[in-house]
Amino acid sequence: LSILLLNGPNLNLLGTREPGIYGTSTLADVEETARTAAAARGCTLRAFQSNSEGALIDAIHGAAGTAGGIVINAGAYTHTSIAIADALAAVGLPVVEVHLSNVHRREAFRHTSYISAVAGAVIVGAGIEGYRFAVEHLAARLGAPAG
Ligand code: DQA
């Protein structure tokens, strides 16, 4: 079983980007956390980050037939991109949405997510651990045995 991990715009800057909000873990740390959680369930993880909406959509399309499910932190595209939500709906794989910060205690424009309407689960405010929870949930949902 393969899981696709997608990270959107500005998440390549994790570690130095607003550490008071997003913590000091890097994108490499995030991907390693997710990969370790996947491996514990006997799953493989493919990780991709892009600052470009179109590249994220292409990666979602590419998941059809190659991944069992998708973990996605779409960054600010969460709040703006009908196109990413449409791509997730089109592919029809199970989706877990992750946000490092608790978006609900931040600015009002972060309170709405187009992704949530196509996600089976949403994890916010747990920091880097949220990616581990997301992978564990998705692996369980996909029927991967616990490690
Ligand atoms: C984020 C929250 C978004 O509102 C923001 O635009 C991000 C990161 C998070 O992980 O907390 O880029 O998705």
Walk me through this protein's architecture.
With 147 residues, the protein is an alpha/beta fold. The chain has one domain: 3-Layer(aba) Sandwich (Rossmann fold), CATH 3.40.50. 35% of the residues lie in helices and 18% in strands. The chain contains five helices and five strands; from the N terminus they run βααβαβαββα. The protein has helices spanning 19-22, 27-40, 53-63, 82-91, 129-141; strands spanning 2-7, 44-49, 69-73, 95-99, 121-124. The chain has a five-stranded parallel β-sheet, with helices on both faces. β3, α4 and β4 form a beta-alpha-beta unit. α2 packs parallel to α5 and α3 packs parallel to α4 (82-91). The radius of gyration is 14 Å and the shape is globular. The protein starts with a strand and ends in a 6-residue tail after the last helix. The site of 1,3,4-trihydroxy-5-OXO-cyclohexanecarboxylic acid (DQA) has 10 residues, from loops.
Question: What's a quick, concise take on this entry?
Answer:
InterPro entries: DHquinase_II, DHquinase_II_CS, DHquinase_II_sf. The chain is of the alpha/beta class and 147 residues long.
Helical content (DSSP H or I, runs of 4+):
25-40%
Count of individual domains: 1
Give the overall pLDDT as a whole number.
97
**What is the name of the CATH architecture?**
3-Layer(aba) Sandwich
Count helical runs: 5
Quote the distance from N terminus to C terminus.
14 Å
> Quick one: how many beta strands?
5
Classify the secondary structure makeup into a structural class.
Answer: alpha/beta
Strand order of the largest sheet: 2-1-3-4-5
CATH topology: Rossmann fold
Rg from C-alpha positions?
Answer: 14 Å
Name of the CATH class:
Alpha Beta
Instruction: Name the beta content range.
Output: 15-25%
Shape, principal axes of CA atoms? globular
Small-molecule binders = 1,3,4-trihydroxy-5-OXO-cyclohexanecarboxylic acid
Catalytic activity: 3-dehydroquinate = 3-dehydroshikimate + H2O
Organism: Arthrobacter crusticola
Family: Belongs to the type-II 3-dehydroquinase family.
Subunit structure: Homododecamer.
